[in-house]
Each structure stands twice: as structure tokens, then as C-alpha cells.
Amino acid sequence: MNNRVFISGKITGDRNYRSKFEQACMDVSRPEFFDRYGSAKLSYKYGFFGFYPVDPCDLTVLGHPLAVCSWSLCMIVCVWRLMGCSYVYCLNDWQESRGARIENRVARMLGKKMIYQ
User: What whole-number distance in Å separates Cα of residue 16 and Cα of residue 8?
Assistant: First the structure.
């Protein structure tokens, strides 16, 4: 188990997706979030308290932002990064997004710990 949290939510069709994901990253980084979802074993192993958010808006492919890539390539990169996380934080609008629903399904199949906003 690691301290990485993949953030999953609606991006396509949401004009304010960047600010929404930035807020989610701040939420995940707060001590209160760790107090609620963390464990003593995790903090002992890593020597600190807190989670490291993995924001799909900041992911790149060969140095290019995902915003300039096809939807399919974005999903491949997101699922690949999700696989390296122990937790998935689903934002309130995750069910409105085809990509977030795919991420949710993959995460549950892989046994990731699910956290819902």
C-alpha cells in the first residue's frame, strides 16, 4: 500500500475542471483527509502523514499535456497512473463521465480503496 491517491472526476465538457481538480488535490493533501482515510501502518512506513494526490490534469505523454492528446490515449495514461495508486478519490460528478466510470470500474477490479467525495 502506498500513499498515492488518484483523483477521478468529469473533465470533458466541464469548463471549470482545472479548479475542481486543484481543490481536490488540496483536500487530499490536508491532514484531516489523512486522519479520516489514513492508517497508522501507512504513516509508519512512509515516516509522515498525508497523501500524495495524482491529478489527471497534470499528466503528460512524452512531455506533452494530455489536453493535446486523443481521449483514448488520455484514458490509457490515466489508467496506467491509477494502477500505481492505492486509493481512488471519486469527485461528486464521476458518474457523469465515461472516463471516470471506466477508472472506477478498473480501480474496483484491482482492489483499490475507493473514497467518494
Answer: 15
- The residues, ordered by sequence, that sit 6+ positions from 104 with a Cβ below 8 Å of its Cβ are 8, 88, 90, 94, 114
Q: In which residue are the cell numbers 497534470 written? A: 58
Map residue 8 onto helix, strand or coil: strand
Q: What is the pTM of this model?
A: 0.84
C-beta separation of 94 from 24 below 8 A = no
**SS3 state at 13:** coil
Cα distance between the two ends of the chain: 21
pLDDT one-digit tens code per residue, 25-59: 988 887 777 667 665 444 444 444 568 899 988 87
Lookup: cell for 63: 512531455
Q: Where are the alpha helices (DSSP H) in the chain?
A: 17-29, 31-37, 40-46, 71-83, 98-109
Q: Cell 466510470: give the residue.
A: 101
Query: What is the 8-class DSSP label of residue 3?
Result: S
Question: What tens digit of pLDDT does each residue of 5-29 get?
Answer: 999 999 888 999 999 999 999 888 8
